[in-house]
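Thread: "does anyone have the structure for this chain?"

Original post by V.I.:
We have the sequence but no experimental structure in hand. Need at least a predicted one for the grant figures.
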Amino acid sequence: MAELALDPAIRLWVILPIVLMTFLVGIIRHYVSLLLQSDSNTDLDKISFSQAMMRSAMLRENGRFILRKSFEMRRHFFNNSEDGYLKEKQESAPAPNMADPTMMTEMMKGNFVNVLPMLVIGGWINWTFSGFVTTKVPFPLTYRFKAMLQRGVELTSLDASWVSSASWYFLNVFGLRSVYTLILGQDNAADQTRAIAEQMSAPTAAASAGGMPPDQKKAFKAEWEALEIVNHKWSLQDIEETLIANSTIKNTKKERKNKDE
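Reply from O.Q.:
Generated one for you, tokens below.
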């Protein structure tokens, strides 16, 4: 493997400009996202849907802490075959509107704010700093890391620890998350990795970010089936005797300890 001695000017004219440009683009992306963020009106149907699903899930998970009669009353409210809440919602839930213009507008805004800057800055770096080797990681790496750390530098004899300018840009994109959080707060739009994760998330999570809406009919049906098969078993059976017995055991141990002393 060839050993390189980098020109000190690379630090001033390549490394720092890429770091500064990546950081400033993230700051601009954050404030542009705030400007493009539409004032969405509160959708009562979505709130009712989410609250009903949450209440049913809490009943399934924590129903063992209430009496069987209380549990059956709540399950009857949700799962009654004639007028149960989940049963009625399965029949009246609207189908997801895939041609919603508001949804398409939000998707276009997200692509404009997140994808376009990455393409422009990546192309500018490949054109301006093409072929530059910027830095070296302080530990040895295997040959398989060359494709990740040496994009744009096709040298088989170069050690895999060296980092090219294009790869240095992508490392900054994923490495400035803590800096953005420190300056802009936890929920900021400058974090490119968070935007990518939202685009790759499930449809339900994407719906909250302006993506494909969930199918409420299927969700209500799945929740109805999950609540229907729950077998109630009261976890607080004979809790008074258990607490008294535990208290008696503790007092007995304390008395024995005092006698031994």
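V.I.: this helps a lot. Residues 133 and 164 are 4 Å apart (CA to CA).
O.Q.: and Confidence is low (pLDDT under 50) at residues 202-212.
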